[in-house]
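Deliverable D5.2: sample structural annotation.
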Amino acid sequence: MRSALKNPYIYALFVIPTIGMYFLFTIYPMLSSAYYAFTDWDGLNAPKYIGFHNFTTALQDPYFQNSIVNNMYFIFFSVFVQVPIIIFFAILIGSVKRLQGFYKTTVFVPAILSTAVIGILWQFIYNPEAGIVNKFLGLFGIDTIYWLADMRFALWAILITNAWQWMGFYIVLVLAAILAIPRELNEAAEIDGAGGFQRAIRITVPLIKPIISVIVMLSIAGAMRVVDIVLVMTKGGPVSSTEVMASYMVNRAIRYGEYGYGTSLALLIFVIALILTALYQLTFGRTKEEVTY
């Protein structure tokens, strides 16, 4: 047995199949996509090389530019609205004495549901005639709002739905960091006369800054890859007002059969994601904080 473990061919026997699978399902599709991005291809006929025409067309495409703006809305909403709410609820749940496990389970449930289920559920909630949102607003005399059919409200409706689905997952992460803080710190601050708000701002939030940084990074990544909730609820409409980069790519490639153009959009999305990640790492990601209790 020991001699077998010292044989490098034994290790190669286990490693080579894994490398082969990784190349077959990851590297090869990426390389083939990079090739098709420079072609005019409908998925059936032979691809025709056209150089950078797809990329220049995409950069001048007003619909793709609009989808980039919508993705930025998702990023700003996630970072500046969703993250503060996540921290607030995590601190709130972490401060309760009873039924804490129930609250953690309740907020986490939407994260384990299928996006298709979430989308259909919120379509009923936003229903202009029978939806609970319009029923509630009707109590105050507000007229019927067509949430998913009105360009003024459709994007905001999807932003709220997407936040509702994923906030519970992030709340549990932040809550785990809060519960890891020694009780003695909060007890000492309470003895010194610090209120709940002061303890949260001066003790809890500074000590969970590393996990907050991770949450911000995950929120940016999630905002960049959002697509399924859009396709389920609006398919990018009305009039492309909710179109994001990934949904626009899917629509052009699958619905219109422009696979060459679709793969070029995928490469552009990849580059934009790399730029945003690099900017985050150069600004906030470079600050290393060591938390000691």
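Annotation notes: The first strand starts at residue 39 and ends at 40. Residues 100 and 242 are 37 Å apart (CA to CA).
The annotation will be released with the project's public dataset once the embargo ends.
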